[in-house]
Specification:
Protein name: Precorrin-8X methylmutase
CATH class of one domain: Alpha Beta
Low-confidence stretches: 1-15
Distance between the termini: 42 Å
Pathway: Cofactor biosynthesis; adenosylcobalamin biosynthesis
Helix content: 40-55%
CATH superfamily of one domain: Cobalamin biosynthesis CobH/CbiC, precorrin-8X methylmutase
Number of helices: 9
Strand content: 5-15%
EC number: 5.4.1.2
Oligomer: single chain
Largest sheet: 6 strands, mixed
Radius of gyration: 20 Å
Structural class: alpha/beta
Keywords: Cobalamin biosynthesis, Isomerase
GO molecular function, one term: precorrin-8X methylmutase activity
Length: about 230
């Protein structure tokens, strides 16, 4: 008997022997995914969503564990289809945070699309000082010339989303779609509402309220990039 595990010496990753303090659990990755998505589709109220939006919602719920996310989801008519078409045409994905960029599953991208995050660019701190704003907002300035037809994913900073909307009003090129999913207690609610109400009529997908974050933004990008669950 192994005193550390309380199981026989043959216990291992593939063993069915039980640990005394650990219940039996599903070990196969594919089965975990299957059960997870089945649970989401059974518990989440997806009936009012277009099929393409429902697919994105399922992935986002899977990332956060909250089936009531659907209640706060808002989208424009061509947000998902427009973003998907843009990616298939080779458009880049602009991300406000390195965590968002790092989470994109490259094999799901239909055209080996560029994933761009400029937050760590050496020019950003000085830009932030000049503009009197956050580095996240200042980093948007480095996107300006390449925004046309892109997919933008904001999963962290409300100031980044606010600045993007200001740039559009200043005449910056329009992205194909904006995934507005900043998280937090200051500016998150207001920045997402500003995106929805913006006079430019940007194609958008948002989760109203304080919820959001890198994991949700990544899930949305990955779901749009490929319809495969």
């Amino acid at each position: 008997m192994n005193e550390r595990t309380g199981a026989g010496e043959q216990s291992g990753a593939g063993s069915t022997a039980r640990y005394r303090g650990v219940p039996d659990y599903v070990r196969e990755g594919a089965e975990i995914y299957r059960r997870s998505f089945a649970t989401i589709r059974a518990e989440a109220d997806l009936g009012g969503l277009p099929p393409e939006v429902a697919g994105v919602a399922v992935r986002m719920i899977h990332a956060c564990g909250m089936v009531d996310l659907v209640d706060d989801l808002a989208w424009s008519p061509n947000a998902v289809t427009g973003a998907r078409a843009a990616l298939r045409a080779g458009a880049p994905v602009f991300c406000d945070a390195a965590m968002v960029a790092a989470g994109v599953t490259r094999r799901r991208l239909p055209a080996d699309n560029a994933i761009i995050c400029t937050l760590g660019d050496e020019r950003v701190p000085e830009l932030a000082r000049e503009l009197g704003t956050t580095r996240s907002a200042a980093a948007m300035e480095l996107w300006r010339d390449d925004l046309e037809g892109s997919v933008v994913a904001i999963g962290n900073a409300p100031t980044a989303l606010f600045r993007l909307l200001e740039m559009i009003e200043e005449g910056a090129p329009r992205p194909a779609a904006v995934l507005g999913l900043p998280v937090g207690f200051v500016g998150a609610v207001e920045s997402k509402q500003a995106l929805v109400d913006h006079p430019s009529g940007l194609e958008h997908l948002v989760v109203h309220g304080r919820r959001g974050g890198s994991a949700m933004a990544v899930a949305a990008i990955n779901a749009i990039a490929s319809e495969e669950e």
